[in-house]
Amino acid sequence: MKLLKSSLSLILALLLIFSVASVSVSAATTPTGYKKASDVQYNITQNVYKGRDVIANWGAHDEVATFLSTYAVDYYTGSYSFDTLSKNSGGTSQNDGYQSALYAALKQMMTSKHTISNSYNDNRTLLKYTDCVNSDTSKICFFYSATLGSSVWDSGATWNREHTWPNSKGDGSSQEDDIMMIRPALKKDNGSRGNKAYGESSGFHDPGEAFRGDCARIVLYIYTRYGNDTIYSRTWGSYGVMENLSILLKWMQEDPVDTWEMGRNDAVQSITGVRNVFVDYPEYAWLLFGENVPKNMTTPSGKAKATGSGSGTGTGSNSGSTSKPSGTTNANCSHSDLVTENHKDATCIRNGYTGDDVCVDCGVTVRKGIDVPKTGVHTFGDWQASSTNTDENAPKHRICSECGLIETETTDTITEPVEKSNTSGIILIVISAVAVATVIVIVVIITIKKKKK
Fold first, then answer.
1. Of 105, 193, 283, 442, whose Cβ has the fewest other Cβ atoms within 10 Å?
2. Half-sphere exposure of 231 (CA within 13 A, CB side)
3. DSSP secondary structure letter of residue 310
């Protein structure tokens, strides 16, 4: 009996050791304490990738970035400065941002700066530089959980390379390998996300408050850097990557850029040459879609507080001051010729604005407009046949052009493709554990039988 108890204890201990050994993580992260760019201490390893010296991520999670790094300052000069680029006009909604002059300018800048392409396999060793914390490349910070583990690639047993923009919703180009959007994630976290779009409603994936802004800024990077018809059609709604523009802007404001994102931008730039402009200048997210930049938002450059005019919590309202004087009168002008500016229709997800009455002659805003509550009414397009189901009797679907809601012809429910999660590693662990336990039990039984003899 004693032998049996000892054997059972041994089995339990082995199972415990086996499970703990499979994932060894610790909590991140120690604040850097950096207050300005000159404070940053860089850890640079020479000749790491294609002859390039690579910077290790020096930042820390949840430590708000209140300055642009030295590399960021040097990156945005001349025609790429914020003061120059921000003069370009943006779109008017989530549906036409990519048609704007600002979008074209941002895309041109990122494309021209992106001089080195990395492969998907390269990420196995490069992520230790981009996703470490406080320049310690021996450990890697896992996306979604903000926990630390060994940076050594173990063939995906512990962590894998998460496509924040899922492959099933990509365009099959080098976008799917870009280290800017590839993040190391624990297998269980990657599996729970699957290929769901980020969002807060039922059927969407919420990455948690600490990573909401990170995800929103990554989505904007892919949308702008690799924009094409496929990317545009797979950005919004449950078939896309982000629920809607309102949620994206809300997340960006509620989860501001931290020093870890700034440090990651430095690291990625040292590898590929490109930076995520929406990390360095989150203000562009609002300008790109014709929204007012929230003046109370903390950003690395401080441009939001200097140029912002709205309260902005991602509601999509275009209220706030215009570039013209507001609430003043000109004694020499009768204000007889007025024009309405800043009008915006309310939609299912976005508040509207009646518009401001502005004098054509003197430019004074005579009357401010008022906000109009969002309607909740969807703007559906035409019914479309499924591109993957060749059955003539298969139900058709239509998509709301504002929020991306998908309605089927018969059930009026939202459907979305399901990406098969990677569970082979988990199955292997379970089978191995059971096998070990079985062998031990057999040995115990044989030993007992021999003793009885």
1. 442
2. 19
3. B
- Residues forming a β-bridge with 54: 45
Pairing of strands 406-408, 397-399: antiparallel
Between CA 54 and CA 121 the distance in angstroms is 17
- Residue 46 pairs in a beta bridge with none
What are φ and ψ of residue 442, in 5° steps?
-60, -45
Element containing residue 139 per DSSP (H, E): strand 139-141
Query: Model-level pTM?
Result: 0.68
Mean residue pLDDT of the chain comes to: 82
Under a CB-based contact definition with an 8 Å cutoff, are residues 379 and 399 in contact? no
Quick check: 281 and 83 in contact, CB under 8 A? Answer: no
CB atoms within 10 A of CB 390: 8
11-35 as b/e: b if 16+ CB within 10 A: beeeeeeeeeebbebeebbeebebe
The total number of residues written for the chain in this structure? 453
Residues 29, 43: Cα–Cα separation, whole Å: 17
Helical H segments across 257-385, by residue range: 259-272, 277-280, 283-288, 303-307
Of 342, 333, 341, which Cα lies nearest the Cα of 361? 333
End-to-end CA distance of the chain: 15
Q: Is the dihedral of CA 122, 32, 254, 148 positive or negative?
A: positive
In this structure, the dihedral spanned by the alpha carbons of residues 64, 66, 71 and 77, taken in order and rounded to 10 degrees, is 130
Return all residues near 434 (Cβ < 8 A) that are at least 6 apart.
none
Mean pLDDT of 8-34: 57
Beta bridge partners of 339: 358
Instruction: Give Rg (Cα) of the chain.
Output: 27
* Coil, strand or helix at 343: coil
pLDDT band at 340 (very low <50, low <70, confident <90, very high): confident
At residue 417 the predicted structure's pLDDT band, cuts being 50, 70 and 90, is: very low
* Backbone torsions φ then ψ of 329, nearest 5 degrees: -130, 160
Check pLDDT > 50 for residue 22: no
Classify burial at 228, counting beta carbons within 10 Å of its beta carbon; exposed 0-12, middle 13-18, buried 19 or more.
exposed
Q: Is the dihedral of CA 131, 134, 137, 139 positive or negative?
A: negative
CA distances (Å), origin 12, targets 7, 232, 440: 9, 52, 11
Please report which confidence band the pLDDT of residue 210 belongs to, taking 50, 70 and 90 as the band edges: very high
